[in-house]
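thought: fold this chain, then report.
action: predict
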Amino acid sequence: MKITRLAGILLISTTALGILASCASDTKKANGQTKITADGDTVAVETEAPTDTSRTPVDTAKYNAILTKLTNGDTTGKWPVKKQPYPLAGAILPFKRIVVYYGNLHSKKMGALGEYAPKEMWSKLNAEIKHWEKADPSTPVQAGLHYIAAVASGTPGRDGKYINRMANSQIDSVLAISKMRPNTIVFLDLQVALSNIKAELPHIEKYLQLPYVHLGIDPEFSMKDGSIPGRKIGTYDAADINYVSQYLADMVKKYNLPPKVFVIHRFTRKMVTNYQNIKLRPEVQIVMHMDGWGEPELKKGTYRHFIHSEPVQFTGFKLFYKNDLKKAPNRLMTPEELLKLKPAPIYIQYQ
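observation:
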């Protein structure tokens, strides 16, 4: 796809379209354990064992202070977001910065999670985490894996919805890989294609019942007009986002879970419509995630126009190991640079 520039804004497709075959189970289980191979080693881990599920009550004074700090002196009045509810006990944001690797186990082109064997992947992600800890010692880092659990496809598939849903065995493998680093959280990401978010959430509901599993949705591949994914950019409305956040909130209450982190990818205005109608809930922490690639100035323009100017709650920023290097100055933005943004992103994703 070509890059289109408009007033310094990044308007390009961000994720290589997953043209995947039907994903049959290729991961074997034994005695309730999932076996994975990491650099030739077989690692057996209980996939259902929870990570740290401590439910520390929210320190509201600290919460307010961190939100103010994240604004970096923004004077527009947009940040921090006004009248947002305090989260339930056990909330991750904004007390920790989430740093994740993104991808799919079936493709080396969709991100670092899938491109590298687990041990090598963790070595690389741990190095990024250390850089963030050094750049902002006052904010602990929460490690995470962000897995595309439903991949938009270029072929219609059996149901004609242009979607490849990952087998449970694949999701189990990601949960097992997450256990290689204690207290890692996992995001399951949905690219609904010609399906819809209401139909796709039940496919991963059993995983969302786990306290350490969170959710991402990608408007780019929500093709409400019936277009084939990858040919144009899709969209979600506030009504869709509110449906999902209510779904998550109901689950948090039903299973007595800590708040769910809910990530929404964005790099154009039309990807999210009627943002001002998005409802905030104590059970859900919404991250509007800048998902465009390009050189630093272009990425900052995208963040300024579509994330800063339409505040929802928290913000995220994606870094592309390959695509961000295609044009001068041919480098990734650094944690130090990202910490100067207004507001500073509290969720960081590497692809």
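thought: worth noting. The mean pLDDT is 87.
final: tokens above.
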